[in-house]
Design brief:
By secondary structure, the protein is an all-alpha fold. It contains 5 helices and no strands. Helix 3 runs antiparallel to helix 5 and helix 4 packs across helix 5. The longest helix has 19 residues.
């Protein structure tokens, strides 16, 4: 029995172990994301305003009670029933930041 064999057994165990999967899923729900859908229009924002939106999206929770943040929901949970609503929230955060920065266009 080699180290490689033991490593493969460990990988298989952790891949199919439901407790590990639950822990992995929980870590995805609260992982901090800087790049997620909706942020493609943030390039024109000053860096401090962009970071404020990123922080806010990583703090606010998806309202479907899944436990994901807005950012993690948009990045990871492609089947969330509120995905479009969450995308709209992020776009509104960006728009509000642009207005506050004097960058808004009519």
């Amino acid at each position: 029995f080699s180290i490689i064999g033991a490593g493969l057994i460990g990988i298989v165990y952790f891949t199919i172990n439901p407790v590990y999967q639950s822990i992995k899923e929980e870590s995805l729900k609260t992982k901090f994301y800087e790049d997620f859908p909706g942020m493609d229009t943030a390039a024109s924002l000053p860096n401090d305003k962009r970071k404020q939106v990123i922080n806010k999206a990583n703090q606010e929770r998806c309202s479907c009670d899944c436990g994901y943040t807005l950012a993690s929901c948009l990045k990871v949970d492609l089947n969330c029933p509120l995905r479009e609503s969450n995308l709209t929230k992020v776009k509104e955060m960006l728009r509000d930041s642009k207005v506050g920065s004097g960058l808004a266009q009519d």
